Amino acid sequence: MCVWLEVSRSGFYEWRCRPPSATELARRELKIIIEYLFEESDGTYGHRRIHAELERLGRPAGLQHVRRLT
Question: Which of these, 56, 52, 58, 57, lies nearest to 67 by C-alpha position?
Answer without folding.
Answer: 52
